[in-house]
Amino acid sequence: PDFSDFNSVIYGHHMAKNKMFGDIGLFTDKQYFDEHPYGNLFYDGKDHGIEFFAMLTIDAYDELFFVCNEDLESRQAYLDRLYSQALFTRDMEVTCQDNIVLLATCTNTMTNGRNILVGRLSDNVYPEAEKPRNLGTGVDELERLVDDVPVWVWVILAAVVLLIIVIILLTRKQRKNREGRS
User: Fold this and answer.
1) Which of 24, 77, 102, 146 is the most exposed place for a label (fewest CB within 10 A)?
2) Distances from the Cα of 181 to the Cαs of 87, 90, 171, 172, 178, in angstroms?
3) What is the pLDDT of residue 16?
4) Is residue 140 scored above 70 in pLDDT?
5) Residue partners of 169: CB distance under 8 A and separation at least 6
6) Is the four-CA dihedral 57, 60, 64, 66 of positive or negative sign?
7) Residue 136 zone, left/alpha/beta (φ > 0; ψ -120 to 50; rest)
8) Tell me: the pLDDT tens digits for 141-173?
9) HSE (CB half, 13 Å, CA atoms) of 19?
């Protein structure tokens, strides 16, 4: 739970529209991998940095990527194998004393395939990348406006709408009653 092991694996689920771990598949593109070198992981009540250094696509049944003994020799063999089978790597020194994290999710590019983004934990916290915007559609502006409205305003607005509906229904009922008497 504290990511103090040499190798920690976080299993996610690849969802449509890049939800959950859907973004991991984007790292199979070399340009995307190069442009996104880090992220953050929240645990122990605070953010911790992750410096991404490798991207792999492997078979889910290749257990050697999901377990590693804690002795230094096993760690080094693990790192060597990881680097040798990676789609892409970043030029950074990762040692047997580091704590690495594998972000693993399924892929539809191969049967039983897994995309694995590998990073080294660091004490640095990185700024969140700006999310893509729906430029020109007004959607982002509308979402921002809706998010900025306090809850109490929504409650009052809902009450007013309900009151208007009740008034309209009562008015129609009175009109029908008058027409029925005439």
Assistant:
1) 146
2) 83, 85, 16, 14, 5
3) 67
4) no
5) none
6) positive
7) left
8) 677 777 788 889 889 999 999 999 999 999 998
9) 3
